[in-house]
Write a structure and sequence with these properties.
The protein has helices spanning about 1-20, 45-50, 55-75; strands at about 30-35, 75-80, 85-90, 95-100, 105-110. It has about 130 residues and is α+β, with helices and mostly antiparallel strands. Strands 1-2-3-4-5 form a five-stranded antiparallel sheet, with helices on one face.
């Protein structure tokens, strides 16, 4: 069941990226931040990173494309829900550094497709919950 949800989420993010979808009002927004390095993530990476950061499937569908595009263009982005910054994503080499308001901080290795397995900054565990 979890795999089926992951496959649906990946497919939906890929469709949104291909269609250039625009998020609907009230879903939150992704704001570019200046950075020297950029990365072009695939749909799997976007879903993994946003789930690890605590975003729900619907939030991933609504904001995943914009996050991917901002990391590819600007190299860093913040996700805002209302007045609150929920997460900040920044590229450094092959890593995406993520700081969230509810789920702590972690580093995502784009080459491995996961958070590093050792060290002090491991991926948060547990199921993703909708960030409010």
């Amino acid at each position: 069941m979890i795999l089926a949800r992951h496959v649906r989420a990946v497919a939906a993010v890929a469709l949104l990226a291909a269609a250039g979808a625009i998020i609907s009002p009230g879903c939150g927004k992704v704001v570019a931040l200046p950075n020297r390095e950029t990365v072009a993530l695939d749909a799997d990476d976007v879903v993994r990173i946003m789930r690890m950061a605590g975003f729900s499937d619907s939030q991933i569908l609504n904001m995943g494309t914009d996050l991917r595009n901002q990391l590819a263009r600007a190299g860093a982005a913040q996700v805002q829900l209302g007045d609150k910054v929920e997460a900040i994503f920044a590229v450094n080499g092959r890593y995406v550094y993520v700081a969230t308001s509810l789920h702590g901080s972690f580093i995502y290795d784009t080459a491995a497709g996961a958070a590093p397995s050792s060290g002090s900054l491991a991926a948060p565990t547990g199921a993703a919950r909708e960030v409010r």
